[in-house]
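Throughout our pipeline, every protein is held as a single compact record rather than as scattered files. Such a record has a labelled line for the sequence and another for the backbone structure tokens. This encoding replaces a full spatial description with a residue-level series of whole-number codes. For reference, a complete record is included directly beneath this paragraph.
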Amino acid sequence: MGFAQDNPEKNVETAIKDFFQAFHDQDATKLRDKASSDIRMQTIGKSSEGHDSVVNVPYERFVKSIVSIPDSVQFQERLLSISVKVDGSLAQAWTPYEFWINGNISHCGVNFFQLIKEQEGWKLLYIIDTRRKEGCIE
């Protein structure tokens, strides 16, 4: 067995980093490749009444929105840390982040990923995140 097979946590961390590389490269093909065909995506934000609200986000809509960001907009999601847990073919990753647009912090929060080990490797199965403007580090 090689090192990669002996360290599933590192493999999951690599899958997360590869997803964010595709995200920053605005590469629709790679973003789709990183996801399981059953992927679900949600975000937690505030409703117009100020209450916490969960919004379902179709993954294909997410991919199209990232790819459509104009070249004049510089964006970066900075992961502050990655915490991974693995049990067999199931993994989870917790990644606090800051989201920057054109050199200014836009918002921050936490991404929570569930991944499944498929024949091709670790694939994103579920993504949920929080987004807030207060309490972000500049």
Helices lie at 3-6, 8-25, 28-33, 59-67. Residues 16 and 105 are 22 Å apart (CA to CA). The radius of gyration is 15 Å.
